[in-house]
Structures are given as C-alpha cells and as structure tokens.
Amino acid sequence: MTPQSSLEYLKNGNLRFQNGKVVNRNLLEQINDTAKGQFPFATVLHCIDSRVSAELLFDQGIGDIFSVRIAGNFVNEDILGSMEFACKLAGTKLIVVLGHTSCGAVKGACDHARLGNLTALIKKIEPAVDAVKEPQDAALRNSSNIEFVDSVAEKNVQMTIENIRKDSPVLAEMENNKEIMMVGAM
Q1: Distance set, CA 89 to CA 64, 81, 152 (Å)
Q2: 178 near 92, Cβ under 8 Å?
Q3: Within 13 Å, how many C-alpha atoms sit on residue 138's CB side?
Q4: CB contact set of 116 (below 8 Å; sequence gap of 6+)
C-alpha cells in the first residue's frame, strides 16, 4: 500500500461506518491470521474517549492499524517512539491524528483543570487553547462554549502534526521522502 491508498482505504472504511455497511469480520479468524505477524497499513493517534475507536470509525479489523490512544491525542517521546516503530520498522504508510468534538481532555485544557497526574496531561494541550484566538472574551473561553472547545480540538490536531514533524526527525524524513503521509482528522 502507498500513503495515498492507505488514506483512501481509511476514508472508504469511514464511509461504510457512516452508512451502517461495515464489513462482517470473523475476529477470531483475524486473531489467528495475525498470530505470526502483523502488517498494519496506518497508525492512528486518537483519544482514549470510549466513543472514538479508530478501528470502528474506519471499519478496520484486527491487524489493520496501529492504534495509539491518549487523552487529548498529543505526542510525547514514548508516543513518537511508537510511531517511529510503526512506520520505520513495521511499515505503516500513514499517520492519522484524530481529534473529536466534545473532547473531555480538551475541555479540561480550556478550563485549565488541575488534578493529580492529569495536570501534566492538560498542560500539554493548553498551547492549543492559547493558539485559538477567538473568542477573545475570557468568559467564553471555557468548556461551556462547545464551539470554542471544538476549535481547540481541531487546533490541537494541527499542532500535534507540527510537533510530530518537529520532534521526530525519523518521521519527518520519511514524510519528506514520500514514504509516509501525515494527516489530521476530526
């Protein structure tokens, strides 16, 4: 598969999902088929939100994609290392950073929530809050303004892709050489 065909494959799967025409898969058979190796064509970085499963949204089966999940779909050293493994060593051709509307982690960042270890996670998303310039009224820049939350979620996807390129020379080089493609999605 090429980066472009991988993207088209995910888009087609998402259309099947939206139209309720998902592929009928035998998951046990897929587990057996992938027991000796895996050859996923895409890596999807997405939120831990239980409503946003990349395998379901893109109508993919076991062994089709690497699924990286973290609240707020941002990158750090460990996630970048996983993506480098996925692309450079396992051969995926596409990285998708998938954000979503009404994201709880983004809402927490909009409200500058502080709670134990969640605080460090929220701080990684807050640059996207600062990058969204409208509305300027501080009273509207919080989780009660869902349009603002969704704008921040979209900006976070864009900034995450920028951070992948900046913080992973391996992936940036692969993208420059057209070995992989990176895209954002909501």
Answers
A1: 16, 11, 33
A2: no
A3: 1
A4: none
Q: Which of 1, 165, 152 is nearest to 83 (CA)?
A: 165
pLDDT of 34 strictly over 80: no
Rounded Cα distance, 176 and 21, in Å: 36
The CB-side HSE value for 39 (13 A sphere, CA atoms) comes to: 3
Q: Is the pLDDT of residue 122 over 80?
A: yes
Measured between alpha carbons, how far apart are the two ends of the chain, in Å?
23
* pLDDT given at position 181: 98
